C-alpha cells in the first residue's frame, strides 16, 4: 500500500541522493582507473597529443626489466616490519586489556604517533637518524654502543630498515587499539567459565582470545600487505629513493617514471600491475577466510 | 587471567616492555622539543640532549610563523578540512540512505563501483585525476583537494552503510504511517540516528586529511595555498640541516593535534575501532 504512495518519491530521492556521490565516484576513482588501463597500453610522454599505441610492450618491459620488479624487494622490509608490528601490537593489546595499573596512560602514549602529521614525523626522524647531529647516534654513544653508529639514511643496507621502523613506530598503536577493541567485545563470562573449569592464562588465551581475534588479525594482515605494497610518503620525503635508489619503493618508482622521466605509459602499466597484485592478495585472503568459516 | 595477574615476575616483564615502547614513542618528539627552543649559536655548541637555556625563547617559533607562513597554512588546512568534512558527511549519509534502504536496478553496480574504488591505489592514477582537475579549472584552488577527498577515499560510504543497516526499518515504516515524506524520514529519523557514525567519519577523515601531503603537493603548489604538510616541506627544504628551526616547525604542527587527541582520546579510540571493523 505504501509502496505505490512512495514510488514517485523514491525515484526522486534516489536520483537526488545518488547523483553527486556517483558523479564524484566516477570522475575521481573509476574514470582515472580506466584511464590508467588505457594509458598503460600507450607510450604517452605526458604532454604530446599523440598517444602511440604499443599494446602490451609496457607490461613486457616491467616483467623483463629486472630493475623494476626488484624494487619490490625494498617493499619487503615494510612487510616484515608490519608483521612484527602486528605481533607486538597484539601483545600490548592483550596486557593492556587486563587490569593493569596505568593501562590508560600506556594506551594513550603508544597510540600517540598515529595522530601525528606524516610530514612532521618524516622530519622528526630525519633529525633522529641524521649522521652527524642525529639523536640516535648521540644516544648510542652515550650508551657505549658507539660501534653501531652509522648513517641511518645514507647507508644503503640500513636505509630501508630505518624507514620501516618509522612506519612501525607510527602504526603500532593503531593496530593495538583495534586489537583492544576486538578483545573488549569478547564476553567476560567466557573467561570466568574457563577459569572455573581450571584453564590457565595461556589456555584461555589459546582457546578463547585467539579464535575471537582471528578475523581482525586477518584484516590487519590485509592492511599490512597492501600498506607495504603502497609505501610512498616516507621515502618520497626523506630520501627521495636514495642513496642510489636503495630506498625506492614500487610507488615512488612509478611516480618517478611518470613525473620525472615522462614515461606515462610505463608508469600507468606499473600502476595496473600494483592494482592487480592488490586484487590477487585480497582474493586469496577472502578465499582463505571463507574456507575457514565453512570449516567451522 | 587471574592467575597471570598474580604472576609478579611476568608483570615486571610487561612493565619493562611497555616502558621501552613508551621510551621509543617519546624519544623523537622529546628531542625535537628540546632543540626547538635553542638559538642557532646555542644549538651549534650544545649537545642534542642538553636542555635549552630557556624554555621561553620563542625566536624559532616566530621565525617559523613568519617565514614558514604557518598561520596561513593552518587557515588553508582548516578550510579544506571543514569543506571536506561537510561534504563527506552529506555524501556519505545520503548515499548510504539511498543504497541501504531501497532496492533498484543499478544498486549492485554502484556498490561494486565503491568496492573497486577502494582497491585502486590513488597515488598511481594522478595523471588522469590531474587532467580532470585542470579541465574543471580547479588547479591551485581549495576545491581541488576537497573534491579529491570526497571522490577517492570512500571509506565514509562503508561506515554509514554499515551503520544504517543496524537501524530497524520499523522506524521508517512508523514514520510513513504518519505520512512523513522520504526526505523528512531521512532528515528527522535517519540522519540523527547516524550521529555516532558521523563522529567516526569525522575523526578518521580529520586524521587522514590533516596528515595528507601528496594531494596538496600536486594540486595546490601555489605559495599562498600551502597547507601544514606542504608548508613544512618547503620550510624544511629551505632551512635544511638547521634542526633547531625545523624542530620548532614540527612542534607547531604537532601541538594542535596532540592537544585535541588528549582531550578526545576516548572518542578517537572508539572511532578508530568502529571505522576499521567495517
Automatic annotation (TrEMBL), chain A:
Q: Name one GO biological process term.
A: transmembrane transport
UniProt cross-references to PANTHER family, sorted A to Z = ABC TRANSPORTER PERMEASE PROTEIN, DIACETYLCHITOBIOSE UPTAKE SYSTEM PERMEASE PROTEIN NGCF
Chief location: membrane
The protein's UniProt keywords, in alphabetical order, are: Cell membrane, Membrane, Transmembrane, Transmembrane helix, Transport
Cellular location(s): Cell membrane
What is the protein name for this chain? ABC transporter permease subunit
Can you cite an annotated GO cellular component?
A: plasma membrane
**Looking at the record's lineage, which domain of life comes first?**
Bacteria
For whether the record's keyword set contains Transmembrane, the answer is: yes
In which family does this protein belong, per the annotation? Belongs to the binding-protein-dependent transport system permease family.
Q: Name one Pfam family in it.
A: BPD_transp_1
User: ABC transmembrane type-1 domain spans which residues?
Assistant: 71-285
The topology of this chain with respect to the membrane is: Multi-pass membrane protein
- For this protein, the parts annotated as crossing the membrane are 12-31, 76-96, 108-129, 161-182, 264-284
From TrEMBL, chain B:
The UniProt entry's GO CC annotations, sorted and at most eight, read:
plasma membrane
Record has Glycoprotein as a keyword = no
Main localization of the protein described in the UniProt heading: membrane
Stretches assigned to coiled coil: none
UniProt-listed CDD domains: TM_PBP2
* Keywords (A to Z) from UniProt: Cell membrane, Membrane, Transmembrane, Transmembrane helix, Transport
What name has this protein been given in UniProt? Answer: ABC transporter permease subunit
